[in-house]
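Here is a typical protein record:
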Amino acid sequence: MQEERKRILQLVENGTISAEEAIVLLEKLSSQKESTPPPVVPPLAEEKHKEEPHTAEPIFEEQKQKRKTTGFEDIFGKSFNDKEFNKKMDEFMGDIKQDLSQFSTRMTGLVGAALSKFKDLDIETPFGEKVEFTKTFAYPVSDIKSIELEVANGKVDVVRATDELVTVNIFGKTPQKGTQEETITQVTENLSTLTNEKLFIQSANKFTQLNVQLAIPEKHYDVFIARLLTGSISIEQMDAKLIKARTYNGIVRLENATFDHAELQTSNGAVEARHVKGDDLEAETANGRIYIDGELKEVEAESVNGHVVVTTTSPEAHKIKARALAGSVEIYVPKTVALDGQIFTNFGKADVGLSDVKLSEEEEQFLSKSLRFTKELEGAKLLKLVGESRTGTVLVRYTLQ
């Protein structure tokens, strides 16, 4: 018993246990001495005991183990050993990896397309003096059904014309080769062409900066396409079966437009579609906000890093899918449609502020919140709605109309 007391005191001196813990151990030894006579230790066992002085008693091992336990383990230890918890965590991390993989694949395609364009750059005289110029082209609107622009550097603005001519106003800046007159002639020679009712505007020198203002009369066009390597695209009062606008670095804006199908895409910048009307609209950005507001039957909007806001006032709306990896999602729909909706979020809030819907399924678990809701309305179009955000709130409301 005396040897055990010495061991306890030695543990206190070494800092292995505290004084309070030592008192508890000493009290246990005293109680054991009073209740149980000391065992008779055979000589051989006593010698063996002396040969192994570092062998700890069970009571000391228990105390050491207790001392090693941290508060973090006390709180979360059960969760870490929970198979269901680990399964949910694995599923969440798998979803994140899948999202990033999908976005990475798309962005790789965009970057690859951008690099392929750079291979065609004219790098003979990229620096030195610049020549500024203006050029105007005009065509009867009756001769044009489709319009396509491809500009490496600059911006595109489409506005409504006040006459019956499609007018192309170009403000440019380009590296000088030879005299100013020779440089301007070379750059503008095939800048705008009209073939088979298709107007095509293209930058011949990829180091040429072109700011294109396109004034178009009111007409229903077949196709309008605008592609930029870097720069913004703004389209107003356009009426076409198909509208496509893509830039790798810049804002894409569509306003007061009518279409059957529209695609708006940028790698770095916001996407806006205001006061638009169409059957199908797709919007995508890797870094930027998406804002869509109009009379739309089908909408798909996706942002990697940015908020997504989608509003449709169409009573014929039948599909909305809005998704953000890092950002909130807001969806506004008319009250005159039937609904079949699902919303998901991992770290935000799932908020369906519709008083007349039925919550058919509600689930809230670690790293996962989901709501499913339905609304039956006789004679109304069924709108299927999906809203998803990894880190932000997903909100669904009725429009004010």
About this structure: DSSP finds seven helices and 22 strands in the chain. Confidence is low (pLDDT under 50) at residues 40-76, 118-125. The two ends are 87 Å apart (CA to CA). The first helix runs from residue 2 to 14.
